[in-house]
Amino acid sequence: MDRRSFMKKAGLAGAGVAALAAPAIAQGNQTWRMVTTWPKNFPGLGVGAQRLADRITAASGGRLTIQVYAAGELVPPLQSLDAVIDGSAEMSHGAAYYWQNKSAGLSFFTGVPYGMTSRELTAWVRHLGGQEIWDEIYDQFGVQGFLSGDTGTQAGGWFRDELTGVDSIKGIRFRTPGLGGRVWEKLGATVTNMAAGEIFQALQSGTLDAAEFVGPYNDLALGFYQVAKNYYFPSFVEPGLATELVVNKAKYQELPQDLQALIKDVCQAEYDQVASDFQANDPRALKTLIDEHGVKVQQFPDDILEAGAKASAEILAELRDSGDELTKKTTESFISALEIVRQKTEGTDSRFIAAREKYFKL
Known about the structure:
By secondary structure, the protein is an alpha/beta fold. The chain has a domain at 13-151 and 239-280: D-Maltodextrin-Binding Protein, domain 2. It has 12 helices and 12 strands. The strands form 2 sheets. Strands 1, 2, 3, 4, 5 and 11 form a 6-stranded mixed sheet that branches. It is globular.
């Protein structure tokens, strides 16, 4: 799918398209509004948000109907969380690191440079205290967060020019969010964040020299290959990105217990469903990018990888020494959990993958 046909199908609207009525409540049934940071029908992420909403609606027998608004249909994409906080919507679907200006600790629940893979992240959140800390952070804003999707390890990004080493990064204008953005800043890039639907135009106009979003499945639809041909793998700043569903906590707690459990369970199911969607479709999209669009798959030079690791360690140390107690607590919990979960990933999983790659041919 090329960018033009995708964006046409997406039907993106400007912010504030319509003034919407308050949630409908009739005979015990409710309609909640979900605003998202994703374009309409966006592969993996936007589709996942819609599927999550449809699952809740169907499983509740219509007692809780979720109406989805894509990026810009009700509020600008990067104001989705604010819409839940101020009551303009009951739910938002996005990525926690988009809101790091509210609390630096939120970035840990999306992706950390050289940090946890998606499977490791779920272990921390579900079993090693991560959810409880996440709840503490979001309690300040009257909302509740749930993991809702998983892209796996992402692509490193699209660059107009080939990267030859750390020196070639200096001055590059790069779209990349979260703690990863802070790493690239330490390496010399000028970093900005923008929503998915805005990136292509910024690349095309020359406002950006490079951009990363997720990976081949999304990037093919967004059309980045039309502007930049150097596609770097893998990302070292987003090893396992998680999306989130955020709900108004007071309204969530007012729901019957079965509906509260339903929202939680559907989010967990969708986390896994989105992961399998990307696992199946990223390789096929990458083949299209290479075979049909002449994209050059590149790997980051070793000195960039090494400098990125050093910068990431420095940032985590800064956050651990932060004067903000919740940020410090989040960082310490993350580091402690990483030391546990990486033992299996590096000692078992990665060794199997290396052996399979070397010896198993079909």
